[in-house]
Each structure stands twice: as C-alpha cells, then as structure tokens.
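Study this pair:
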Amino acid sequence: MSARATMGLILSAPSSGSGKTTLTLGLLRALTRRGVSVSGAKSGPDYIDPRFHAAACGRDCPNLDAWAMAPARLHDLARAGADLLLVEGAMGLFDGAPPEGRGATADLSRHLGLPVVLVVDCARLAHSVAPLVNGFAQHDPDVRVAGVILNHVGSPRHEAMLRASLQDSLIPVLGAVYRQDGVEHPSRHLGLVQAGEHPDLQAYLDRVADAVEAAIDLDALVALAGPIAPAAGPAARLSAPGQRIAVASDQAFAFAYPHILADWRAAGAEVLPFSPLADEAPDASADFIFLPGGYPELHAGKLAAAERFKAGMQAASCQIYGECGGYMTLGRAITDKDGQRHEMLGLLGLETSFAKRKLHLGYRALTAAEGPFKGPWNAHEFHYATTLLAEGTPLFEATDAEGRALAPMGLINGAVSGSFAHLIDRA
C-alpha cells in the first residue's frame, strides 16, 4: 500500500439528496473487498459522513474544505491516504458559500485537478437527464465531469429511457442503481445518525456494497481516476495548545476534526481521550482540556449525573475549551427537547435549550484577542440550540462568509472559553 495517495475521483451531484453518501460508502466497501487500496474524503465541514467512510474502508477520512483551508492543506490531506482517493462532495457540484459559491465541491476539483463522477437522482427524471448532465459537463471547462451514475432508477424501462437520452452524450454511464429498501441512513436533526450508533453497521455497509457492485462498472469507474495535482508548497500546521491534551471522546463529544488532532500530535503533544458519558474525568496531568462538539443534548441527563466528570472538570487548573456541544456543556444548563433542564458544568455563564429549536448555519471568520486560539480563524457553525443566557466576556469577533459583521461569538471566563463555532483552520 502506498503511503501517499496518487490518484483520485470526486463523487458529486446536481443537488443534495441525490444519494452521494450511500453510493460512496458502497464504492469504498466494494473496492476494499476487491483488494483496492482506497480511502475516502469528504468535501466541506462534515463530522458524520467521514466516520462512515472510515468504517467502510478501514482508513481515516479527512475533511477537505475549500472555503476554510488553504490549497496546500487540501493537497496535503488528499495525498495522505491510500493509492486511490474517493472524495464525496457536498450539496450540488457548484454550490458553495455566498455570494459566489466559494468552497464548492467544484473548487476541490480545480485545486486537486480531479475528475468528477456525477450522481444523478433519476426518481423524477427521464429524457431530461441528458440536458441536465450535459449542462453540468459544459458549465466550467476547469471542472471535468468524467462519468455519470444513474441513481434511484425505478425499473428496467426507466433505465432504458435514461440511457437512450444519454446515448449521444460524451459522458459515459457507469451504472444504474435501482431504488431499494434497506440502504438509506436513519437521520435526525443535525443529519445522519453517527456511525458508532448504527445498530448493525458492518452488515449495512456490506449490503450497500452488494447493491453498488451489482449496478456499477467498478473497473470503468476506477479507470476514470486522475492524478492528484502536486501542492505548490508545504502546508502550514497548527501549533498545539498544550503538551498533554485531554480530549472528550464518546457519542456525546464525537465531532473533532482529525486534521486538528493530527497537527497537535505532529507538534509533539500527547492526546489523552476520556469519556464523560462513562463518568471519566480528564487526566489530572493534562495541561489543556478540549470538549468537542457532538450531541450532549441527547445525553444531558447522564452528563448531569456524571459526578467524577464534573468534579474533574471543575477542579482543573489548566485551560479548557469547548466547541458547540462542548461549549454548551461548559455552561450552567442544557434544556432538552422535552423541556427538562439539566445542570451542566457551570464554568461559563451560558444556558441553552432545544425546547425551541432555531437553525444557525454557515461559515464564520473569527478573531480572538484572548484564549487558547488567539488570532484569525476560519470556522463553521451548525446547530439548533437556542441561547437562553450568555453572561460574560465574548471570545470571538465574527463575520459571515460574505464579510458581514455578526454578533460576537462565544464566552471566555479566565482559563475557560468556547463558542458554537467549529474551528477548521487558521485564516
């Protein structure tokens, strides 16, 4: 197996909901079963799909975020996998942040020089598939659509109409995947159920792989892969906020970007996982504690009763930082969707609620004057929590993806700080 990926392919679609994730998982598992050295990557700020990718092929799955990461970082992460890299796109191929669509999957294609396989949801399409596919193929000469997969096909007659419509197209049809039960993910308010919560994950992945292998010409798909373009220079790595970093890691705190933890380790830090849900306290020797995002609201009662965890956090003398769900846990209380209030750590003057949900979504440009992550950062916000109370000093000055000023984000109270934003990379 190669230490550096050399070839890659991007799976994208005209829009969200086309079935990219399911097909990517099936392809990763099917190719792995054939002995292909393959790994996955996910376009944009996503914590859930990468865990499924890793389970499907047995290799870590990085996020490749063309809005938040410099090109050198994208190249470095793309080339760190197996011999073949399959990148799952986000939303539609050309959909990115406002106003001009920066950070779209198409940007990854341009940066990395990789061809695109277009996954088309054909449930409500027949002969119109041709102008749709040809329009995407001709839209940008720097983004090469190399093949198409027909997804959610209803019948052999439906498939025949789709193929007939595309017979004069220069874009080869790699396969037609029929609608079937048992291959879609269960979901909830922030997206898919986490990989670690799937009741029978390995059987599910094999079932999806069987469907993909029966419907798609895998040899033809692999043959479309192109070389990953070399980076113009070395990627800048993040410095570690401590030498011994305790990181909360369980189903309530699962949303930590692998590239950030890898940078900390590369800087010489030791990462010390602990589980608040198992009532574990952070390592007493830690000189930094990190509570990542996740779903603490689903486990709020258990966290409220985790006495060793709470005592260890409250006794810590080092810097403590929380993101999104971790930030909420640092506060005084979380009210769950049923309206029940649960006492949290009380380290920040913050109370949040899911009784009335409101979507907060988008890229953020942040600048901190104090705390463990001073200076400018690129970040992303995605949560439904309502802030009932936020008392204290704000942590970040913030703007959105269009450069418009937002209200200051987060709180800092001495050595304790955090915000709803997920930091991705230095600006």
Summary: Confidence is low (pLDDT under 50) at residues 187-191. Residues 201-215 form the longest helix (15 residues).
